[in-house]
Sequence to fold (978 residues):
Amino acid sequence: MDANRDLMVDFRRTAVTIFHCAASPLSMVRSLIAAVLLATASPLASQVHPSPQVDPKVAALRDAALEGDEHAWDIVEGLTTEVGPRLAGTEAEGRAREWAVRKLKAMGFANVRVEPFDMPVWVRGHESAEILAPFPQPMVVAALGNSASTGPGGVTGEIVAFDSIDALRAAPNAMVRGKIIFVDHRMPANQDGSGYGQFGAPRRQGPTLASQKGALAIVVRSIGTDHHRNPHTGVMTFSDGAKPIPAGALSIPDAEQLVRILKRGQPVTMKLVLESRNLGTGQSGNVIAEVPGRDPSLPPILVGGHLDSWDQGTGAIDDGAGIAIAAAAAKRIMDAGRPLRTIRIVWFGAEEVGLFGGLDYRARHGKEPHHALIESDFGADKIWKVDSKLGEARKAEAEAIGKALAPLGIVTGSLAEADGSDIGPMLGDGLPGVALSQDGTRYFDIHHTPDDTLDKIDPAQLRQNVAAWTTVLAVMSGGIEEPKSRKRR
Amino acid sequence: MDANRDLMVDFRRTAVTIFHCAASPLSMVRSLIAAVLLATASPLASQVHPSPQVDPKVAALRDAALEGDEHAWDIVEGLTTEVGPRLAGTEAEGRAREWAVRKLKAMGFANVRVEPFDMPVWVRGHESAEILAPFPQPMVVAALGNSASTGPGGVTGEIVAFDSIDALRAAPNAMVRGKIIFVDHRMPANQDGSGYGQFGAPRRQGPTLASQKGALAIVVRSIGTDHHRNPHTGVMTFSDGAKPIPAGALSIPDAEQLVRILKRGQPVTMKLVLESRNLGTGQSGNVIAEVPGRDPSLPPILVGGHLDSWDQGTGAIDDGAGIAIAAAAAKRIMDAGRPLRTIRIVWFGAEEVGLFGGLDYRARHGKEPHHALIESDFGADKIWKVDSKLGEARKAEAEAIGKALAPLGIVTGSLAEADGSDIGPMLGDGLPGVALSQDGTRYFDIHHTPDDTLDKIDPAQLRQNVAAWTTVLAVMSGGIEEPKSRKRR
Fold:
């Protein structure tokens, strides 16, 4: 724990900065991060001797990205502004693919193409919630992905509330039948994002359980950690033959209000309107581009994120930032020279609604060897940890990555596991991978809400992400051959 | 500035606490405040000798409120939960008056009554905004109070944008005619709330100016300091004979998005739907209650806030907290014994839409002498300053208030001015008053948005407010006669 204690000392040194910024919590956090980034960027100072275990070319690429990357900002600013929301399978996601092809070509990547696939399309309609009794008032609700429609007239029923998915599971059918079910939870905000799995159960399992017990509809406390009137949507699937019912998420202040109302002990009646629609089969696609390697026979390094977003926000942290970070890092390698291995950028389609893009890529290319799979899909706050699963034979490579990332304030975690959303099934199949973990403390404040907009991205932290990714690609590239002429497009 | 420097030292001592809470900006701020409250509560420690200039009975009432007041929380929790939004002149505001009468009677106050008055009623309808070209996407909008309706089909027009109200004022009519006007601004978050006057001009003057120049409609950047998809509504009036036009506020992330889109240089077309309605004359009222003084011939001390709220949130910080603080402080005095002077609680109606409650009270009682007018209408964050306007002859009373408040970390400001919303016109008429200023740094993050909900109130800071108000009432009461039996209802 000595390393942690050292970090504490650094933070204490920045405490005066923290106080000066106390006016704004967000700017306070940003100042803290900026101070840490400055501190960790100390190898740049010529009087401070860097570790001999890190290739100076790798260190130079890393530090240049930290100082000056603008590619990632340009991508996420452009996509969120010029396309905005881009729900999977809709015309908006189609516009996003066209935008992506133009952008990746303009950046100078090779082999830019779309691999299309079919998928079922669900869209949101008009939605509202209202307490009719005992204390009439409106509430803010959003349909969950794949919710059934209430029809324009809505449904009205008595609320039956459970404090957890386990409480709903234990309830007799008679308690649930014909009611509007409410499921609460206490998801915490953690740096590693843990909590989303366990506390996301009301959204993922609640609708099926409620349907099986005969409920009229279900509303859950949004799976999130904020206190704004912005409900968190997200996909769910009716499984085990359960009949689709209307299923929504209340914003967290509304869920807490509902609990206060229920605690008064009188029957609570809600009117719920969710005019969601299934549009049948539509088209999505993965957008792919490459930095061709000097040796095309070597397996490529796949770097990616997902192009689609939920419909309520503009998909800045989820996942405009991710595709931006992946492509910006690849661009920085390309601008430095030719890597030995090919770097393949994949901007997956239709991730949010069921990993359709990742599964399509797997079906087409999952049997081909890959040097590594890396995905960014957890916002753009500072990367704090690197995990990898490259196998025992490549332990030295994994350790070299950790050494090269340490000056960015990134700890080396496991050498035996990696994760990712679209790439998850392929990692499960045994393909090698690296995982660069962003700080998730505020990720679930914003995730899947209308608040997922560009202003939530801190440019300084975004640059730290690009620096980390550039570092990993520089180490894995097999060596970058600098151009004979220093002038490159 | 020495006093400030001392405060800095205190804050530095709390820096480790700050770091430990860095996970959540809000909890960070709360910990900071809690540390300061603990520090400032040091007179409670029996080994620390208090100032001889503060009456020990006053100090005891102050410190007891800081430690344990629950009345204010009970009021704001009850009103926001059991009534929720309560727009002036609507049936919901009527329910709020009934709730208020029940609550004030249950707390044991005397002479609980409603003074009703008529007023014009405006209500929000369905509303939406959408960029049609060049980058189709929805935006989040809220009608401003007194907006004209677009009708259900909405209006569609080209956006003409101005960076300030001055830029709109300078524009030739031909530039504005038939367009949808957008007015931007850069309102800062300041502790004293300054900025709302100057930077609120787009909302207050923009609609009239745009109408006079022939605009189709107007949208302004929300008058606020946050970055959430929650638009800030607020009242405006078409003056100088200007014809009402549709007028809305975009959320701040949407306003910034619109600026980014405009910067691309292509014509921008918006479809705006605001189905607002004027319902004609309706009824509101002021709810009044008293702690009768031992000498009914003496002028009363008026303590108040406003009972109505905007319709988007539940009116927790604006102004459930204010009426709660005023009544909780009066209750604490009443429970301690009988004050010499009467304390009159006024929960004003219809403040948000034009100070109708304050003006009605002024018309009925404004010529009667009052010992002081005090209003709370700026949230529930820590009170940091006390101003007063009691006149030269009562300088000693004003200074005694300052001395008694200092242990709460409250600085004494002006002895020549005080302010308040409903009480503002009467202070202008020359009635005496005291102003206890809350920290407004985060007030305009939430003000007039759907996010004005109970979770935004920090119970510890709310108690500091009640302690400050109790202190002021204790000093001004003319002396509290303790009951012969210590048992009181």
